[in-house]
Design a protein that fits this description.
This protein is α/β, with parallel strands linked by helices. It is built from 11 helices and 13 strands. It has helices at residues 41-52, 81-96, 153-172, 187-192, 207-210, 212-224, 248-260, 287-296, 310-318, 329-333, 337-345, and strands at residues 8-10, 13-15, 19-21, 57-64, 76-77, 100-106, 134-135, 149-150, 177-182, 231-236, 265-269, 301-304, 324-326. The protein has an 8-stranded parallel β-barrel with strand order 3-4-6-9-10-11-12-13, surrounded by 7 helices. α1 (41-52) packs parallel to α2, α3 (153-172) runs parallel beside α6 and α7 crosses α8. The chain starts with 7 loop residues before the first strand and ends in a 14-residue tail after the last helix. The mean pLDDT is 97.
Length: 359
Amino acid sequence: MSALFEPYTLRSLTIPNRVWMPPMCQYSAAPDGADAGAPQDWHFAHYAARAAGGTGLIIVEATAVSPEGRISPYDLGIWNDTQARAFRRTTDFLKSQGTVPAIQLAHAGRKASTDRPWKGGAPVTADEHGWQPVAPSPVSFDERHPVPTELTVEQIREIVGQFAEAARRALNAGFEIAELHGAHGYLIGEFLSPHSNKRTDAYGGSYENRTRFALEVVDAVRAVWPEDKPLFFRISATDWLEEAGWTADDTVRFAGELKEHGIDLLDVSTGGNAAGVKIPVGPGYQVPFAARVKAETELPVAAVGLITEVEQAEKILANGEADAVLLGRELLRDPSWARHAARELGGDVHVPDQYHRSV
């Protein structure tokens, strides 16, 4: 059997194949009003198409645990029950196609309050639905971003609670897996890295202090997330800095601790926390980081980063470099990538009855 189309079981949940969709923001939610942050028709059509195309697991885009946690005013949120109910249409449909619905819970930290990428992605003002970002330390991401407000310990604890409440709502919304967003220079990742965390209290300085917030979030979410359902963590395995940044060694060390705290799989990406760094982008350029975590720890991993070709994805799994592959841009280009890959490899994938003529 093709490695791509072997089912994969975590806790009591079986995912039908190893072709997974990572979180990719659509910047298509209402910025204000009664349905602010709630999924719209675009979100349903977007995720439904990939489910009908045979994708085994779909992780819904970064979904903010508070209004201030959005990357842009147009991001999804799950800080209220109206938003949670609106997700039901999508999760029900994904399940009807045999796809496992997952959600990434996130807080953007100092990279919050920006415009949509196709509008330039610059920070937005209050007149443009913007707000003042918060962070571990008053250090801006780059010269374009404002200096964020340093979080107090009380505010840190409040955000930990917001992650837990968001997880409760995600469960009620029908999601089977929750993923905590600790990558790409957003709030959890900002705490992890000495590049962005300059605190001198219990949440900064040493490795143990810098990882404290992340583990508190994991513990709070794991306490409300059912024992039989998996919990993922997305990490940037390196800041791509020569010094004073989060490193691959840190990631391997942290992976073991995440497993002890109830994380079931590490979604391994890189970068996003330091502006202007040189990243050797190319096919599969982040796979070695996932492979190292898999080789040196007992925590399962998913690999991501310019994985586009069927043979390439199959080889990653067959070589034992990862337990699943996450296809981002390729699934934007081809919602039925999984079905095409199954035809090429002789794998078995769900095909909707309405599409039986395409088999």
